[in-house]
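Exercise 3.2. Students should predict the tertiary structure of the chain below and write it as structure tokens, then compare their answer with the key that follows.

Predict this chain's 3D structure.
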Amino acid sequence: MTLRFVTSGPSDTERAGQALAPLLRAGDVVALSGDLGAGKTHLVQGVAAGLGVPDAVTSPTFNIMLVHRGRLPLYHLDLYRLEREEELIDIDFFETLEADGVSMVEWGDRFPHALPPEHLRVEIHRLGGDDRAFDLRPVGERGAALADAWLSALGRGAVR
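Answer key:
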């Protein structure tokens, strides 16, 4: 099952993330995929703002993981630079996903078998200009509930 919504620029994408934030609970995993510059980090910045994270949120490409404190801890991971699934053990990937916060995983499609049985996959596609399509692919009951609640919070269809 794929559900879709569209944003019309970085601030719109951040608003979509802000709409997702209040729906998240400890243990939730959102796996993000899309080309470089698609908007993955903008979405995470919106989630961070919605969770009350006071500090700036940037892509953790070179750090692999950054932790931000808000209503819930936000574990912002970027798997782009990892070459082998075994490297996930070195960064405490599995322990992080089971921790007390929300995990937003950029390039989550690199190691799909490492993702937990309950998560939400978000594929971001450029539509032209600043427009982006967000395809939600829920995995498990929690993934489906999160996708439905997010679309409902957005007004079912598009962020305006």
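Discussion points: Residues 41 and 96 are 19 Å apart (CA to CA). The chain has a mean pLDDT of 93.
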